[in-house]
Design a protein that fits this description.
alpha+beta, two-stranded antiparallel ribbon, single chain, 14% helix, 2 helices
Length: 78
């Protein structure tokens, strides 16, 4: 598994002064996506709707709206 490309604008392009330690989205060589965000499993686990669940090895990660909106144009439709 390797990172193929960044999806959306870099943190610096989104206005991060340092360009580091910011939410980010990457497409992986196997077609999945990796997300850098704030870990929020404890805060949001009980908020999941009844038809959603996560495995013990999965975490709920939060990214800013700005990060996802900047990535929207780069996310494939299929």
């Amino acid at each position: 598994m390797k990172i193929v490309r960044r999806v959306g604008a870099s943190p610096r392009e989104r206005g991060s002064v340092s360009g580091q330690s910011c939410p980010d989205i990457f497409e992986l060589s196997d077609g999945r996506f990796a997300v850098i965000g704030t870990e929020a499993t404890d805060a949001l686990d009980a908020e999941l709707p009844p038809d959603a669940s996560r495995a013990d090895y999965e975490r709920i990660v939060v990214i800013s709206r700005e990060t996802l909106l900047h990535a929207k144009a780069d996310i494939p439709d299929a």
